[in-house]
Amino acid sequence: MNSWTLVTVETIKAQTTAALSTGPFGSSISSRHFQKTGVPVIRGSNLSEDVGVRLIHDDLVFLSEEKAREFSRSRVGVGDLIFTCWGTVGQVGYISGHDPYGTYIISNKQMKLTPDPSKTDSLFLYYLFSSPDIRRRIQRQGIGSSVPGFNLGQLRTIEFLLPPFPEQRAIAHILGTLDDKIELNQRMNATLEAMARALFQSWFVDFDPVRARAERRQPEGMDAATAALFPDEFEETELGEVPRGWSVRALPEAIAVNPPRRLQSGAVSPYLEMANMPTSSARALDWAPREFTSGMRFTNGDVLVARITPCLENGKTAFVDFLADNQVGWGSTEYIVFRAKPPLPPTYAYFLARTEGFRMHAIQNMTGTSGRQRVPAEAFNSYLMVSPSPEVAERFGNLAESTMRTLKRHDEESKTLAALRDALLPKLLSGEMRVGEAEWVVEGTG
Predict the structure, then answer these.
(1) Which residue of 97, 153, 169, 219 pairs with 212 in a disulfide if CB–CB is 3.0 to 4.6 A?
(2) Topology of domain 251-387, CATH
(3) Which pTM value belongs to this model?
(4) Distance from the first to the final alpha carbon of the chain
(5) pLDDT per residue over 142-198, tens digit each?
(6) What is the pLDDT of residues 297-310, one digit of tens each?
(7) Considering the domain 5-162 in this protein, what is its CATH number?
(8) Are residues 282 and 190 in contact, defined by beta-carbon separation less than 8 angstroms?
(9) What's the number of CA atoms in the CB half-sphere (13 Å) around residue 256?
């Protein structure tokens, strides 16, 4: 480490105007300026304390191009770093070349750093400021109590050891390779789940295979044996035309609502917090053991749907597959638990819960005062659904369960990669582990 140099943020910033600056003053940017398209604004909710999350693109707001031009000092682009100065101090974001927007505006509670590209590698700096050591130093310097703050003057004076440029790039490459693998798994999972949802919509909502057979066409993308499982005509029901031989049933006849699960008071069992419920994917990724007191209980194969506002509207829904065999988990009393009854496969309830018709029925049946509305479990007694033949249900189950197994395998691999990244990061940044050793470890992950 003799070649590592002690520097400050001030000394490694780019020699350009506003290379180190804060967002617009006060209320210069407020909700009255926000629109649905234009130049995106980075707020605290778009940053994270998770080193694997460089920038969150959910819930972005935008400014018009004209308004954005007023804040040239607060504009950030590829290679820039963003820090929270009020709120959750210690958060850091990074604009990579893979983000959907080339330029952003930071809010009045953020700061930006444009590094000098001749001195530092931006991705290396991102990992440096994501390290536990730097985060703790920033948080210790926080001012204020109810709303912690960390200002530009404090950021300027942060000291750290900077390795030679080639070593910076090598460290960033090692850590970035792990994050790239995690991101690839996430993209593959999103694609696979989207395909499974589209299949459910096609088979059980739009009845595309039946329409094709009724018109004497081969269903698109389907082998002859699977196509033969579907009827070739419709019949009239209270829901309109449905495939002949399939039944229209109230949901509780085909899917159990809040099925009984036994869990002894005080027993330690996996607990799933509402905050860890996924909004747009099937699997919950974080849970923790906790002594059971009171709450909804569930087992593998159950489906959880948040019933309270705004969690229901936000789509918090999960397919449970993280428990041990015969284990009972538990969570919020604000969950409704669904379990498909045979011959429907367990995955059927999950994909049904993700359909627009199911969600709208739940939302339209919410009761209670504003801000604390929830859908009662009894509301699903009036929800009518189409139940397919056992043969079609089994075929869908085989396909969907294969998808779920792949999603779980990818998530478990990503968890292992993230743990490896988190272990290597402080060792590489302190010089405790050299690049060659880390490369050997990473190559072993495949």
Answers:
(1) 219
(2) Adenine-n6-DNA-methyltransferase TaqI; Chain A, domain 2 (3.90.220)
(3) 0.89
(4) 29
(5) 776 667 888 889 999 999 999 999 999 999 999 999 999 999 999 999 999 999 999
(6) 999 999 999 999 99
(7) 3.90.220.20
(8) no
(9) 15
